[in-house]
Structure prediction request, 345 residues.
Amino acid sequence: MRSLLLLVGVLLLAHIALLFVQPAPPVPVSSTGGLDIGIVFDVGGRGDKSFNDGAYRGGERAEKELGARVHFIEPGEGSDREAGLRLLAAEHMKLVIGVGFIFTDDLTALAKEYPSTDFAGVDYALALDSAGNVSPPPPNLAALKFREEQGSFLVGALAALVGKSKKLGFIGGMDIPLIHKFEAGYRAGVKYVCPDCTVIAQYAGVTPEAFRNPGRGKELALSQYQSGVNVIFHASGSTGLGVFEAARQTGKLAIGVDADQYAEAPGHILTSMVKGVDAVVFDQITRVRDGTFHGGVQEYGLAGNGVGYVYDAHNRALIPDSVHARVEQIRRDIVAGRITVPATR
Prediction:
């Protein structure tokens, strides 16, 4: 009994002593520096060979080069997009990225609801207030914009120089200002090298479904090809697959968009107007890591390789050296400010 009382006394003294011991500070997580990133894909998801695949590549690169932990979400329809963004914000991601203009409203609302979380919207659609002025995004939301008109200017010039016709075609998806930028730049590029050329422009619809209607794309493209058009530039998402099918059927040429789409119709894709979604996503993650992230409108154009056009072994045979040299000079002139490219029709 005496030994038991002695043991209890020792334990009691030890317990009292521990009450006066200051706990050690938590060990900081050093493996990734807490660089948790969330990315929610646009309509179509992975495998679209366009925006979503570009965002995925940018995220993968951030994992390899920056040690980030990137959480990808592929939503379904409607509220699934908002739910995906909300889930990532609630999980305290350092940065939440929505891929595509369709996320604009959801990102704006969540950025206000989670002011300590950084957000970014690829192709964020700027809104106008009642006075017609642009409404800035919340301070923790980066509105990532591309100078699509600049890349479209180059492919417009290229189409006119190799098209062997005074008629050039353009097919857009949804009839909205964002796609008007592609048309405006393309039309200006055509006119720059061929003042007497005509651009036939048509749109697949007025709802988001217009970006995934290959049947409508083929119908419009066949009509344009039959009217004397030899080259069509599309900015219409998967609707463009119908444009490519029409190009194969008629033996004519098409121009891809957002990513290199040569593989969709080998021999019939003159070039593609590409947008560096992967580079933009990686850039924003880098800024978060470095503590230099900031909200507001951020534009990426030819100068920073935000946009461009494809010229490689696949399509070189379709583009004479003299034409490539001319287009490259135009590119330099745009970057230098010697050519101003319109962004509206």
